[in-house]
Amino acid sequence: MVHVVDFEEKKSGNRTLGGSLVRHMGWVAFLVRAPRFLTLDRLIPEIGNDAYYIQHLATLERFRGQGVGRGLLEFCETVAAGRQLGSLALDVESGNAAAIRVYRSFGFKVDRKIESRGLRRKYDFKGLYRMIKEI
Prior knowledge:
Shape: globular
Order of helices and strands: EHHEHEHEHE
Distance between the termini: 22 Å
Number of strands: 5
CATH superfamily: Gcn5-related N-acetyltransferase (GNAT)
Oligomer: single chain
Low-confidence stretches: none
């Protein structure tokens, strides 16, 4: 599964994400997690106007190691190039070594680390890496 957006889609998507989360999780679960979501949303930097942002990329466990993730990344790169965008961008949890290894092997580089002492203390949030691949 891959969910990718360009700069304009990301801006408008952030406004509708709350409603999607409520529908998926229910009001109570959303309200319990809302402070964490809002804090995290403020920490994540904007993407550039020429970036194609990979918002979600996941491979079912039974298909991992078979090139599915790489195929999805290749698809994203092809679409981004077709839209004349200059880079792919994504955020990955800093503790997700397997995903980071895949992204690096595909040419992504860590642009910055996103951290929050408050989220670490409260939720054991270890941070995110913003990774970029120029195309």
